[in-house]
Design brief:
CATH topology: Rossmann fold
Structural class: alpha/beta
Oligomer: single chain
Radius of gyration: 19 Å
Helix content: 10-25%
Number of helices: 6
Shape: globular
Order of helices and strands: HEEHEHEHEHEHEEE
Number of strands: 9
Number of domains: 1
CATH architecture: 3-Layer(aba) Sandwich
Strand content: 25-35%
CATH class: Alpha Beta
CATH superfamily: Vaccinia Virus protein VP39
Largest sheet: 7 strands, mixed
Amino acid sequence: MNAGRKSPPRAPSRPALLTGRPGSVRIIGGSWRGTRLPVPDRPGLRPTSDRVRETLFNWLQPQLPGARVLDLFAGSGALGLEALSRGAASAQLVEADAQLALGLKELGGRLDASERLDVHAGDALAWLRGAQESVFDIAFVDPPFDAGLWDAVLGLLPARMAASAWIYLESPTALTPTLRMDWTLHRENHTQDVRYALYRRG
């Protein structure tokens, strides 16, 4: 009797972002709910997880309708586009990687959002120094963790924010970025690797 041969055990699958293949995240609420956003393999590109974004946008939902949103270090665009999907009036995305920025512009066209979405390809600090006419109600700050940019960004960003604005910060769990005295912590939480917090002005 031939018992047959057992197939060799398969290696466990790994997330696409860890293998160098393109991955994706999804918009989790609003008019574009379920839309997949591509996430190319790039050093330092670490999209905010679905779980963290769901918590964040539950915190922010009352503030989103009609809001002017700034997504610095936009990457996949998940934060800025989620805000637009949930009713923000406009979103400014700033992304240093020219190919990623081009992809975000093309994605805005496919979502028929070009009139509400502006994408700037360039350095976030340089953009903040030059954006004299821009004022925002909500800003997302999630820079590459190994770049150490929180102090520099938070020194420039408040001048671009409205009187009753909100700033979202993502950082390693061991790091708590410091804002000026006129900003107060509204909510915070953490995962194993990330601290995420929402601050309110005034």
